[in-house]
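pls design
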């Protein structure tokens, strides 16, 4: 009992110290990987401790004093068996009650495991550690049984499924910077939509119809329980998320990946960075991004996260774009930079100071406010584009925008239906499936050959498409998507639940819908049934192969030509402004950052925003501080 007591207190103390450094809790792999911990804790443990930590040992002091002054005495009598069993059952009952209450307040808490902060908050540090240990043991067991021969079928499928690039599109953006903008919960129906005669997203609409933009009208999200993290995984690796839970959270810390940051860096010398105003531990990003090969990750600790600057899921979008400039301008070109917005996230709450768009009038507040936050996101995006043009980045940058998943859930679609000119009484599963369309736009300034594309595709297809536009052949890598511009592109869009959509048909379970009419095909011909069965088999096989690849971590056995597997220990997301400045100083006149090319001056003054949180004084302070290392702020409350 004494050993358990000491171990429990030590576990608590080590997690407190670890959290101060990483804003995250220790996993079993972290605990047993001493070298990783010692490398990650840049300062000594003593330096990270605070005077109030004495409270963690206050009980020990009381116990010692109790024994010294004989207030507490050892009782050598054996605990009665009935009493021991009763106490154990009583404890287990309360554990199950606690887990049940946690699941009620945060559905799929254990299934999705999207943030260790939530697990510890609801379950406690002990239960979380045991849960993580069981999960780690299960993953290890699956992986220990894997071998390189398990890759054979996957490689065969990859080779058969490969779609050669369109010669007219291959390399049209070669050498350009890549900016990827994650449009949180943004659905396709918002494009060109007018509420009470007013465009909800006028700027995004203008991009969608621009000749410089390849816009996809039939592009679908393919996420599972991992939601945003699933979308990121598909865009970065062209592999699917898991059938249950989030791949980022469950496997991302240990898996080997062939992700876009590493591919672009090793083939074309790209620097990579992610900008996101939420805690780095959310969706386990602070670990996954290292395994992807991202050079930099600017999470909430790099931004001013005063309460008025935040939404429920992090920094407001206008502030994210504005406050990221001081880091963006120091990246060496060419770079790939990803911005993850959050303001357009359920429950779509935005303070009055940031709202100038009238909400819809339904009985569901989240549906009503969805248009308000989408309009705010549109304004934030327009401000960022204006900055890119003024700073000189715009002309040499390919800008990719995508909606990660639905914003209005199937359960709320009935409230939305009248706003879309449809009847709630006739709304069905076909309509739900069609609502999974999200925007996907590739904006290449000066290209003038863009337009609205009608081919069907999904998030799994983004990586090979981007690679080919940059002049990088996707064939060496294991990817389940195909180039959207290729004549051999596979237009069958698989959903994580094994339903799928083709250009002519939507298949949900055993029901076939005709896309042109939405009607059920009650008596399909033998030819149609054979076609549907063939597509269903392909979808099931593709999802299964992706799951096998990820669950068994098979990419550790597969090294493409001229590709070096990523070593996450080489990446450190602390004090990154100093890292950026150090690189600039090392390169000297060869530095290709916007800062260096602007005669060592900041471009922050090129950024114009109407964000009420930013006064002229604040903007001036941000500009003057951009030559210094970043100020570290506390992460937002989870």
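designed seq:
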């Amino acid at each position: 009992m004494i050993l358990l007591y000491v171990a429990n207190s030590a576990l608590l103390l080590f997690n407190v110290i670890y959290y101060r450094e990483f804003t995250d809790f220790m996993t079993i792999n972290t605990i047993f990987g001493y070298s990783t911990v010692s490398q990650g804790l840049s300062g000594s443990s003593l330096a990270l401790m605070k005077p109030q930590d004495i409270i963690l040992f206050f009980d020990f002091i009381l116990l010692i004093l109790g024994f010294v002054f004989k207030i507490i005495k050892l009782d050598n009598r054996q605990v009665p068996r009935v009493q021991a069993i009763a106490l154990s059952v009583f404890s287990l009952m309360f554990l199950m009650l606690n887990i049940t209450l946690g699941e009620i307040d945060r559905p799929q808490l254990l299934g999705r495991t999207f943030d260790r902060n939530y697990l510890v908050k609801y379950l406690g540090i002990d239960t979380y550690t045991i849960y993580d240990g069981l999960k780690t043991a299960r993953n290890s067991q699956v992986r220990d049984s894997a071998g390189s021969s398990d890759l054979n079928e996957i490689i065969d499928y990859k080779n058969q499924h490969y779609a050669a690039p369109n010669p007219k599109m291959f390399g049209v953006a070669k050498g350009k910077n890549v900016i990827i903008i994650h449009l949180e919960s943004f659905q396709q129906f918002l494009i060109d939509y007018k509420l009470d005669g007013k465009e909800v997203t006028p700027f995004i609409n203008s991009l969608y119809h621009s000749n410089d933009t390849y816009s996809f009208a039939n592009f679908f999200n393919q996420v599972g329980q991992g939601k945003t993290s699933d979308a990121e995984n598909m865009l970065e690796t062209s592999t699917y998320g898991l059938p249950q839970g989030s791949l980022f959270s469950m496997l991302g810390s240990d898996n080997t990946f062939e992700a876009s940051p590493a591919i672009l860096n090793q083939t074309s010398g790209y620097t990579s960075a992610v900008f996101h105003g939420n805690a780095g531990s959310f969706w386990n990003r602070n670990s996954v991004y290292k395994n992807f090969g991202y050079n930099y990750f600017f999470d909430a600790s790099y931004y001013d996260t005063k309460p008025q600057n935040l939404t429920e899921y992090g920094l407001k979008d206008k502030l994210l774009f504005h406050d990221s400039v001081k880091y963006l301008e120091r990246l060496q070109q060419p770079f790939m930079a990803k911005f993850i917005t959050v303001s357009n996230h359920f429950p779509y709450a935005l303070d009055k100071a940031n709202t100038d768009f009238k909400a819809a009038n339904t009985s569901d507040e989240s549906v009503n406010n969805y248009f308000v936050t989408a309009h705010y996101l549109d304004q934030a995006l327009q401000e960022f584009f204006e900055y890119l043009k003024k700073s000189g980045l715009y002309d040499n940058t390919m800008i990719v925008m995508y909606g990660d998943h639905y914003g209005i859930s199937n359960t709320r679609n009935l409230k939305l239906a009248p706003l879309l000119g449809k009847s709630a009484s006739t709304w069905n599963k076909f309509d739900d499936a069609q609502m999974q369309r999200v925007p996907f736009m590739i904006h290449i300034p000066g290209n003038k050959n863009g337009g609205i594309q009608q081919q069907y595709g999904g998030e799994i297809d983004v990586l090979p498409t981007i690679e080919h536009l940059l002049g990088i052949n996707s064939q060496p890598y294991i990817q389940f998507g195909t180039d959207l511009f290729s004549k051999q592109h596979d237009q069958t869009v698989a959903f994580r639940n094994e339903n799928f959509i083709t250009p002519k048909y939507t298949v949900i379970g055993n029901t076939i819908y005709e896309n042109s009419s939405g009607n059920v095909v009650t008596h399909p011909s033998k030819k149609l049934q054979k076609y549907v069965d063939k597509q269903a088999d392909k979808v099931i096989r593709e999802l299964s192969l992706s799951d096998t690849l990820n669950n068994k971590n098979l990419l550790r056995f597969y090294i493409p030509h001229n590709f070096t597997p990523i070593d996450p220990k080489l990446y450190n997301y602390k004090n990154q402004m100093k890292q950026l400045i150090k690189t600039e100083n090392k390169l000297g006149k060869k530095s290709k950052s916007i800062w260096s090319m602007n005669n060592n001056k900041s471009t922050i003054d090129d950024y114009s925003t109407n964000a009420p949180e930013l006064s002229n004084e604040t903007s001036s302070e941000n500009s003057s501080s951009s030559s210094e290392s970043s100020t570290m702020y506390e992460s937002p409350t989870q």
